[in-house]
Amino acid sequence: MCGLWGLVGVLLLHFAHGQRTEPVFTAVTQLVLPRDYENNPTQLNYGMAVTDVDHDGDFEIVVAGYNGPNLVLKYDKARQKLYNIAVDDRSSPYYALRDRQGNAIGVTACDIDGDGREEIYFLNTNNAFSGVATYLDKLFKFRNGRWEDILSDEVNLQRNVANRFAGRSVACVDRKGTGRYSIYVANYANIQVGPHALIEMDEEESDPTRGVVVLSNVAAEAGVNKYTGGRGVTVGPILSYNASDIFCDNENGPNFLFRNNGDGTFSDMAAETGVDDPYQHGRGVTLADFNRDGKVDILYGNWNGPHRLFLQTSVNGKVRFKDIATNKLAMPSPIRTVIAADFDNDQELEVFFNNIAYQGSSANRIFRVYRRENADPLIEELNIGDAAEPEGRGTGAAVMDFDNDGRLDLIVSHGESMAQPLSVFKVNQGSNNNWLRVVPRTRFGAHARGAKVVLFTKKSGAHLRIIDGGSGYLCEMEPVAHFGLGKDVATSVEITWPDGKVLSRVVNEKEMNSMLEVNYPEGDKLNTDSKIECGQGFSTNENGRCADIDECIQFPFVCLREKPVCVNTYGGYRCRPNKKCSQGYEPNEDGTACIAEIAYLGRDLQNNTSPTFISLASVLLMSIACLFPHWTF
């Protein structure tokens, strides 16, 4: 009998090992986008953005070319290939997008003028690492039957609004909830030259119906005109319930977490919430809800420093972020783009780290983040397969489902120190898992970047996604909330727009494994169907929306004497000890230890009455960073 169980154990271990070591990605570049001069040239590329360039309902990939033309890659369903529609032909409506003279690095797309079509912004860094560049950025609008740079319009030249500074990432933010977006530009300042910029349409001076879009830089008005080594930018309702906040991970200075004050201005909350990380050098960044608690978490990579996975927590009503990165995930590397997505549709998020071969080989890596009940997520490194690219000069990456098979595809760009073509990868796993893709629209019909989408399911609770307005590093993902569901099914979906408008609707079983387009709701209607099913841990409230059930109130004696304190969680509850703490300290989220209050520490540091000072090691690190800056884009 023991021999039989031993054999079963060996077989189970072998099966589990096989599951873990099955490669996630297979290269399909030669099949889908073979290297050639027109469609996939060997050149220096950087960021990528996913948007509908030709307005046919399908997404294209816009690639920022540094020493070559920008590319616009479209998928041909019949030939099953990607091809470049921004050809070298002046009669083409996409010709101007090539912008052969620009050294493009960052790219983003969003509707800035409310015409229902996304504009495309390229950040150029000609002949400058920081400070003043020798070539202006470009903001392309489809006008007069072709794409034209509106920053070059006479009215905008007179206003001197075009960004003249070297920068890195760009992102889209609907700062006032109007459905018209601003372009956030993370410039790389040289001392007091080159602050961050925020470019948007001046509504009073513009007439979009005639193609007149007058632009303004409102960074000072919004409170984001900071001087720093700007690197990564991402946008979403991080601290706010619906309004778009902005997170910037910077180099040679603290990160920014700009909370939207509700009036289009911002306040930096990075230090107060614990994500300022002042002695590291940020690169790629993204937002996700890794533990499915309904709060937005922040994942980012530091250049040859510890990478961070910050879970958002709340202690006594104060937001704090807790770094749960394991040693493997945090392991320093020359990192570029960071992506969080469910590649295999199993309900769990994967984390993709794109590294650049810098002073030696440096393979890309992928991790799976397993959600656990009443515990921090479990993080496991996976076999990345063909996407390792140890000699790849990775500079950017994006995800999208270009062939509409329900699984996300990965596109990686290369450049900086060596010209290399783009790479395309398909996912090997999860072909039989369920999925759902949700595309919310603005009041003007454009993609609602920055919107929050929550999908409720029968068995696995609520899943949250943010419609991307800029993330990764220099990049912007597809404007789709992609949900992998494993064997579970969706019951309802709730969309919250940046202006606070909310819509809930039923998801029918026939709609599984498809893409749902959701229009901006008219009037005050909150839901399209009163018979919404919310799933375990949630119930419909008086507005017909799914709301968390407070088990601690419904069942006041649910916790036993050993852990008498009931803490309501999103879709559940947990029990913790009744921890008592001394002055200046408070219980942590689990009630197992006392931690210093941020406000208390802040008073001590300000009054110099506490031995809590910046460590000598941190000071040395900062000094070294200033003396030897990282000259990498």
TrEMBL record:
Residues 1-18 form the signal peptide. One of its GO terms (molecular function) is calcium ion binding. It comes from the Eukaryota. Keywords: Disulfide bond, EGF-like domain, Signal. The keyword Disulfide bond applies. GO terms for biological process: axonal fasciculation. Pfam families: EGF_CA (PF07645), FG-GAP_3 (PF13517), UnbV_ASPIC (PF07593). The keyword Lyase does not apply. Residues 548-595 form the EGF-like calcium-binding domain. PROSITE patterns: EGF_CA. This is Cartilage acidic protein 1. It comes from Latimeria chalumnae. The lineage of its organism: Eukaryota, Metazoa, Chordata, Craniata, Vertebrata. The gene is CRTAC1.
